[in-house]
Amino acid sequence: MQLYDRDAIERAVGLDGEALAAVEAGFAALGRGEAVQPPILSMAIEEANGEVDVKTAHIRGAERFAIKVSPGFFDNPRLGLPSLNGLMMVFSARTGRVEAVLFDEGYLTLVRTLLGRAIAARHLAREDSRRVTVLGAGEQAERQVEALRLVRDIRALDVWARRREAAEAYAARMRARGLDVRIHDSVHEACARADIIVTATPSREPILFARDLPEGVHVTAMGSDSPEKRELDASVLSRADAFVVDTRTQSEINGELKAFAGGEVPFKVHELGRVIAEGQRLRLSPATITVCDLTGTGVQDTAIADFALSRLAPL
């Protein structure tokens, strides 16, 4: 068994085309019914504004599978600590023996989450998308544009965050990377010219409404990943011409579909893996509005862990 720390993992794995292809292949396997993915094990630690999730999946035919333990403690930035932490344990899919422990401190979760958004944009956003709006200014926002640039020629960034000082610090860092960045005092203003909107907050109530959506926009929401979180008002889902999730079951429990809990969902729900595997074209015109709700899947974790280990210790 090998133990790898975050520094070694960061040197081996970044936001690049090969990593994106590995995660996309995981989604496609899920869409073809070639993955075994149990429900998420989740535990809240309310007194510390924290949670711990355990996710896993096996892609049939793969040499390895991973089990991820992922704590998220959302007051940590006030303590000078990152919100995310954790590790991934990688097992042989033939013998069940532990091959490696990837003590990534949440880095691989960050990478596969960013790549998941890029994959959603590749299949759902307009090909001429140039302007992205990011709602939130935390760790996820920092490298969001870098990931999106793998699939779209992003040139301009609009940002909104609950704390103005956080938005200003984020904007300064992104301007240093050559982007045209504007800070906005309201979500509506931030989204007015967007080609792509990304929500990346721990909000417990909706921050984005149908009235905020410009024609032809693509929205990827990923902050709602537990029962008490919400980022999208139900009007956003109903307004979408195509609504996509990573898995419907997870979205109904942890994601944005819980807005319709106890009632019938009044629109068709697509799963991203099937969109990829079947080559579905959901954007029928430049005016089409697409929305994707990503709650984070075990198949993404197994895919990125296997990819990381292939670079750290090739078979």
UniProtKB/TrEMBL annotation:
NCBIfam families: PRK08291.1. InterPro entries: NAD(P)-bd_dom_sf, ODC_Mu_crystall, ODC_N. One of its GO terms (cellular component) is cytoplasm. The lineage of its organism: Bacteria, Pseudomonadati, Pseudomonadota, Gammaproteobacteria, Oceanospirillales. This is Ectoine utilization protein EutC, similar to ornithine cyclodeaminase. It comes from the Bacteria. SUPFAM superfamilies: NAD(P)-binding Rossmann-fold domains. It comes from Halomonas beimenensis. It holds the Pfam family OCD_Mu_crystall.
